[in-house]
Description:
Blueprint: E1 3-7, E2 10-13, E3 18-25, E4 33-39, E5 46-51, E6 58-60, E7 68-73, E8 78-83, E9 92-99, E10 113-114, E11 118-123
Parallel strand pairs: 2-11
Antiparallel strand pairs: 1-3, 3-8, 4-5, 4-9, 5-6, 7-8, 9-10, 9-11
Amino acid sequence: QVQLIESGGGLVQTGGSLRLSCAASGLPFSSLTMAWFRQAPGKEREFVGGISWLSLFTSYANSMKGRFTIARDNAKSTVYLQTYSPMPEDTAVYFCAATLKERTSASTADYDYWGQGTQVTVSS
């Protein structure tokens, strides 16, 4: 069973920087394709971006391209999500997800494992 634990959320100001981490355990991390989703109040969970096993493939939602960066450190079994330009509309609960599939996907149905989420609030 895979466990995913997110960290790094909290209150951040517009113009600041935000870096979330997700530590995985339970399966060899290098076998997992990882992704970040987010869910704002009253909205559906949406794909932010994902990264495949060996970082060969990364993908982002169109609205996230250029603002978010995903990276992974297989030695630390951790995946990161970073933005240098958070905006109030980025306020949401951010979830880490994992799958044994080779490619990333924007569909929540394609991920088998989920973290509990970490709240990010961006103030203007």
